[in-house]
């Protein structure tokens, strides 16, 4: 079998790939690729057909590709241990469930949904706040442990509906070492007799997960903290099958800035995109999202923060993953995005900016656009800002931002008129940033004011905004005619 280290990312196609799922995939990927012949497997856990969402599997695959994670084995490029969709592996699970029944470590349960509800109601009334089907209750239920053997055989022969449940021991301590949390122990009395095979013949997550991880020779299971409570059931099954369990690592939760787990509802209320698809549609840089997510629960142990995927692969280790939850800081993600945008050469950014400009009804001239991009680089957080914030490079401002108007003072029109007088004397080839800056100095010296009283209204006049790229190179790029026209318009409108 290829790979001394084999990990799997095993999402359910019940919706678009959640940002937490993407981080789990990333940690698996970094861990696998940090080992010489490590293998990253994508397995689609689609046993719950009632919750299947059309297009979800494709979204998962496209999201991984977008971030630069290459899938070594999966539905699109199968290896030796396929199929890689659990719904296509259905036949193999039943035999393993039956094996546990034969060994006396699982049993057939024939209880109807109504009988299960009655049991829960009965236990609640007798003071049990969280009733479950376990070592105590199983003996009063309708299953192959309580029914006579011939009746069990008759029910099976007649095709009566049943599930197969794991027979969890009543008093046992289940202990294992977690790669993130150290030694973890659970008391079996807190566990229910987990359903392994449903009445439709489909396995539950728990059975399919254990069987597939074994058959696919997965060496490390790296997954979210929410699966930690299921781990003891999985450990029991490995023991019953006589298999070596993979090493396990349970990753910390992603927390909301306002506290608690970052749920869909919380994310929406805090303006945080929740699915990877949203980040793609909002044109985030994939390198920024990868770098940000890597640090959401892990750090290399020094002050560095900026790393390419290859560097992260070299640095990543499970012993540096934190146990406590990691807070999703949207401002930090924006900071990463700004960094990666600035790092990109103009020739790489231009085709993307051109598409956005065309979507906004602007037909950009290539040479002109390639002068705007470097000028705007330090002012943009996302690639579309080149067009949305930089729209004034293509058309006169339709109005003036309220915030910007606060920069317009009683002497603004007078100072701008004086500036127009000075720059009107310049020839087109003299209309350069350095000379334009000198003219600003001349006007403010003549009127005995600082830079602000002229620079601020000048920016408002040419862009309609109170912020933007370096002012005099902006004027040079706009040209003499446009600059003077916009200043005169602002004087006229704002007085």
From TrEMBL:
It is found in: Cytoplasm. Residues 5-335 form the Glutamyl/glutaminyl-tRNA synthetase class Ib catalytic domain. Gene3D superfamilies: 1.10.10.350, HUPs. InterPro entries: aa-tRNA-synth_I_cd-bd, aa-tRNA-synth_I_codon-bd_sub2, aa-tRNA-synth_I_CS, aa_tRNA-synth_I_cd-bd_sf, Glu-tRNA-ligase_bac/mito, Glu/Gln-tRNA-synth, Glu/Gln-tRNA-synth_Ib_cat-dom, GluQ/Sye. The keyword Nucleotide-binding applies. It catalyses: tRNA(Glu) + L-glutamate + ATP = L-glutamyl-tRNA(Glu) + AMP + diphosphate. The keyword Disulfide bond does not apply. PANTHER family: GLUTAMATE--TRNA LIGASE, GLUTAMATE--TRNA LIGASE, MITOCHONDRIAL-RELATED. Catalyzes the attachment of glutamate to tRNA(Glu) in a two-step reaction: glutamate is first activated by ATP to form Glu-AMP and then transferred to the acceptor end of tRNA(Glu). This is Glutamate--tRNA ligase. It comes from Fodinibius salsisoli. The lineage of its organism: Bacteria, Pseudomonadati, Balneolota, Balneolia, Balneolales.
